[in-house]
Design brief:
Elements: E1 17-21, E2 28-29, E3 32-33, H1 37-51, E4 55-59, H2 76-86, E5 91-93, H3 101-108, E6 115-118, H4 132-140, E7 144-147, H5 158-162, E8 169-172, H6 174-188, E9 194-198, H7 207-214, E10 219-222, H8 227-233, E11 237-238, H9 248-261, E12 264-267, E13 270-274, E14 283-287, E15 290-291, E16 296-300, H10 302-313, E17 317-321, H11 334-348, E18 352-355, H12 358-367, E19 375-376, H13 380-387, H14 393-396
Parallel strand pairs: 1-4, 1-7, 4-6, 5-6, 7-8, 9-10, 9-17, 10-12, 11-15, 17-18, 18-19
Antiparallel strand pairs: 2-3, 13-14, 13-16
Helix pairs in contact: 1-2, 7-9, 8-9, 10-11
Amino acid sequence: MGLNKKTVDDINVKGKRVLCRCDFNVPIIDGKITDENRLVAALPTIKKLVGDGGKVILCSHLGKPKGEPKPELSLAPVAKRLAELLGQDVKFAPDNEVVGPNAKAAIEAMNDGDIVLLENTRYRAEETKNGEAFSKDLASICDVFVNDAFGTAHRAHCSNVGVSSLVDTAVVGYLMEKEINFLGNAVDNPTRPFTAIVGGAKVSSKIGVLENLLDKVDNMIIGGGMAYTFVKANGGKIGNSICEDDQLDVAKAIEKKAADKGVKLVMATDVLVADDFSGNGTNKFVKINEIPDGFEGVDAGMDSRKAFAEVLKSSKTILMNGPVGAFENPKFAEGTKAVLEAIVEATKSGATSVIGGGDSVSAAKKFCKAEDFTHVSTGGGASLEFIEGKVLPGVAALDDK
């Protein structure tokens, strides 16, 4: 799962028009970017291309405009903030066609080392369908294509896959390289013991992850809503907890595979339950297989938190994919917080920690700092599919070394 693709270090961009696909899908409220992690993550690649004398044309999607221009989803605020972060002018090309007269004129006027940012690629309906016309438009404005958007690497769109097949040189940027190397090494070349935490609501959405990781890990912690499917499969009482009755056999099969592989499966033994998901009703700790009717499991209990922390603190590689409770509600967040704190402690003691998947990343940013972990992935769905062992079309389309 390591990266066998050409990178920005393998090419010469001096005097060339370089189209660089970034992931600037950032939250913007009243014209202000409220989380600029993705912008900061893109800076090393942009600086490299500028420093090497390329004419750097940036593109990204933002939100889901569904093929029509929506002013609130314009990338104009991103251009402004990028200019501040880079300390140089970033010319924004407002163009509802993305590659229209404004964009072409701005690119025509570029000198080596200049930067232009195109409008939201999803203003074009063809983008998400990988349509030929938009792919050709993008290819027509560049000599070299650089894909640095790991967050969309699992999707075959015009601005990552379509354009790659139409240019002579298509390579990986530093962020994409870093993501794949960290996730790939964590999964395929871990320092042992290797522990994975797989959480979230549904077993069905994580079957691929569970299956692939059982071949690689020493310990697997199963938390969050998916745990109740395992409990019910073993005859436990789960009250009103979330459960996928059509996945009970899958849960048993995963338990059997873990036993056959000698993987230690660590499940919660006690949980916090609530009779009101808002947290304003009765909340109490019970054994996970004795949840009373009218109550649902919302967080890992005290004993479970201790057990999870013990396993994590003795691990040398940790991969977290999913929280262990409904952490969005502060009353149900202590379990996920405890897990993250144990990972931070293990990292300080030399463990490699990788946080992947949208909810895990949100929790990590909420309760800790990104630099507390070895790597926090910028791609939710992409990191999930990568950990499952799937081929990412946005990476596959690039030039091999």
